[in-house]
Structure formats: C-alpha cells, structure tokens
Structure prediction request, 545 residues.
Amino acid sequence: MKKKIAIELKNISAGYHNDLVIENIDCTIYDGDFFGIIGPNGGGKSTLLKIMLGLLNPTKGTIKIYGKPPKIGRQNIGYVPQYSEYDKQYPISVWDIVLMGRRSIRGFHPLYSSDDKKATVEALQKVKMLEYKKRHISELSGGQRQRVFIARALVSNPKMLLLDEPTASIDKELQINFYNLLKELNEKVTIVLVTHDIGVISSYVNRVACLNRFMFTHDDDQMISKEMLEKTYSCPVDLIAHGVPHRVFDDHKKKKGKV
Amino acid sequence: MIADIVEMLQYPFVQRMFIAGFLASIACGIIGTYVVVKRVVFISGGIAHTTFGGIGFAYYLQYLGIVFIEPLSGALLFALTAAVIMGLPFIRTRLREDSTIGILWVVGMALGVLFLHQVDRSKILVQDPVSILFGNVLLIQMQDIYLMIGLLILIIFVTVILYKDLHILTFDEEFARISGINVDVLYLVLMVLIALTTVVLIKVVGVVLVIAMLTIPAAISNLFTHNLKNMMLFAIIIGCIVTFFGSVLSLHFNLPPGATLVISLAMLFIIALFLKNIKQVFVKSV
Prediction:
C-alpha cells in the first residue's frame, strides 16, 4: 500500500550567515508515522524544525508539507515547543493557552467563537487535562504542562504533531505515560519528535533519522545501530536504554554492538 | 484632610490634575500590562526618554517661528519615531536590543538639551526642564487633556481589536509566527501603543518617571492575578487610587507630584509583595 507523504525534504541545506548547519538532507515522512529525529545538541535539530515550520528558508533544496510550501502547509502541523522557554509568571490559564491554538486555522478575529471553545474542551479531554483548565501555568507539573502544550497543538485539528525535545523536563517515570499518550494520539495523527534523548525514543517510534549536519534515515525494519549513532554523535556511544531495551540493541547488519 | 480635598477640587487646575491622573492610570493599566509581561520595560524607558528631545524640538520650532507645535505633539512625534526604530525587524534582529535602547535613550535626551539650549527663554514661554523631566501635573492645560483623551481612545480601540493576537504575541512569539500572525507588524503596533501611552503619561509623571507608571501598577497587579484582563483591570484601579492619593499628598504637603506618585507606587509594591509572601507562607503552613 502506498502511503501518503506528509513531509518531503529534498536535498535541503540551511544555516545562518553562510555557515551551513545542515546539509543535503533528504527525508520523507509518511502520514501515520511515529517518526523520531535524534541527534546531539548543535546537530541542526532546531534548524530543521524551523525549516519545517516555515520560520527559516533553506539555502538549498525544497520542502513540501502535505504537498504545499511550509508557510501554507504548516497549518496541518501542531507544534509543541520545548516549554522550558516560557515565562512562568505570565498571567495565563491552561484554557487560554489551548484556545490560542485556534488562531492558526481561524485567522484574524477579535473574539473566540463557540467552535473554538468546543475544540478547546475536546483537546483538553484528549490529553486528560480538562479538570485543570482554570489552573495557571505555574501551578502545573512538567508533565501536565507538556500535555497542555500538546492540547494547544491538537486544538487546530492538525494532521501532524511536531514535538521538540518533549521529554526534556519530565521525570523518567512519567515519560512512559507521556509516550503512551503519544502512541494513543498516533492512531489519528502523524507524530514527529525531535530529541537528543536516544533512550526512550527507540521503543515507541516506527521510523528514525539521525541528524548531525547530515541525516541518516533508517527505513523499514532497520533499527538504530550503534554504528549509526556513533556516526551521528561522532563519539563512542554506549547503548543504555530505558523502557523496552531490546529494539535499541538490534543491529541491521551482522556487527554486534557492545553492551 | 477631606475638607481639604473638597476645597482643592474647586480649583480647575486641581481638577485637571485628577482627570489627567485617571487618564494616565487607564492607559498605563492596559499597556503597562503588556510592557510587564512582554518584558519590554526598558524599551519603554528608551521610548519615553526620547520624548524629551521631542518637547525640546517643539519649543525650538516655536522659538524659530516656523510652525507652532505643542510640546506634547513634539513628544508624540519623537516617541513614535523611537517606537518605529525599536520595532523595525531589521533593527530587532541585527542589533543588540539593549544597545539600541541605550542609544535612542541618550540621543533623545541630548537632542532635548541641545534644542532647549538654543531657545531664548525671554522670547517664548518654556516649561522648566526639571518639570519636563519629573512632571508637574499642576501645569496641565485643557488641550493636554483633550490630546490625552484622544490617545487613550485610540489605545483602547487598538487593544480591543488586537487583544487576542497581542496575548499570543506576548506569551509566545514563535507560536504567534507559526499561527500566521504577522509578528513584525504586530510588534511594531505594540511599540506604537507604548509610545502613545508614554505621551499620555509624561504630563503626569514626567519623562524620567514614565517607566514607574508603566511598570509598577501592572507589576503589583501581576502578584495577585493570573488573568491578563484582570491584570489590566487591577492595574487601572491601583493606578487610579495611587494617583489620587499621591496627588492629594503632594498638594497637602507641597511635594513634587511626579516623584510623590512614584514613591507611593513603590511603597505599595513593597507592601503588596509582603502581603503576597505572607499569604504564601500561610497557605504552605496550613
């Protein structure tokens, strides 16, 4: 069965002030994927995110999001940024944050409509945060806040969720819950997550790409190999996994990874 | 004391002082909230200080007899120019923000000094530079009040129309961009709103003390609410109350009104901070 293409990157290079941060990236993400992009800090993950969101134009190559250029195609993406960047004193409730997500599909309008409010209730229900709707952002735990930002991304009914370092500030125990939630959401939306945390990612995603200036995409049934990780992180990597470890250790060639 | 206030209120200049104080409180309650949450207090300070140049410029043109410009209109012109410079995407991305602020701030002040130096004070009536800098509500004229009302209506109108987008912009600029908001234009609009507010405020507290009115009522308000609209509302109420009592104090004890107002606000902020912490300690211990 031919799968529908969600994001298509063709020969993308990009950077700042003539310094390329990422080079010649080819990557296709299909509808329904649970796609993980992993790589070290400074490897170009956030640059790639900016390109996907239409915040940065690549210096070379083309990108299509659901067949359209990113500035239009991004309407199909629900973006979940690293929440650690927020001002925790900002006067805003859970409800207001999620409502904001409606702006992208409703366009300029001075007031929120009853549809917006209905969608907000539904999005909060999906992440099981409806009862916290009146809470202020400072009154939430890291995991709860992450759910709120997922609700904000979901409220515009996107075809895809794009998450930047989603587990950076969540306790290890809660990460399992969190990934289970993503797995659940993945039944309806495509999920792309970007992280430097190799540990958890592997047991949930169905496809992985390693990014460190260049990108190594691993399709089909190939698993993350030690070799591939070492190429990406350009240093010896010990594979220590959290959650379900076995898949991480699988090699796609005969080479055995040191455990 | 109450008899005093009632008696004072019979003088037109005192009435104008209270009206100006209330108008300023409304403007700073609304825009000050954005200034505080978006953390642009010092950008606002930079814009405010350039108005000194504008006032000097207006007097200079009056003195030359080229065209008669009200000092407050000169202030408006300079504040808007500074706001546009601060808000230009080119300047925002290429220059360090604090450097831009520093340059605008001192250039505005220096221009004011130069212009006022050129004016021969025996020929035209010039407001004392100290009262330009630190405010003198007793000098407010009716035309100042009209200009303030006009600006305030404009500020309220724009804020109501753009409330949703400003909320998104001030909370999460990147998300605003992704949501299809023209962030560059909206940020420029916010800067212009700050400039307009600055002009509403300078007659009341003076160029230097504008930051106080923009910051302190909203900062106090933020201690007690987690809702942006309430924050504006509380800031307006705090502003009105403090302007009223500050003005009464300054009249009663013959103190400089702008400075009295700022110190009153600062004291209220400290008390509020104290009360809030008491509340937190109390809640935790229960």
User: Anything to note?
Assistant: Chain A has one domain: 5-249. Chain A touches chain B at residues 53-55, 74-75, 77, 79, 81, 86-87, 89-93, 96-97, 100-101, 103-104, 107-112, 136, 138, 152 (CB under 8 Å). The CA atoms of residues 38 and 187 of chain A lie 22 Å apart. Residues 240-259 of chain A have pLDDT under 50 and may be disordered.
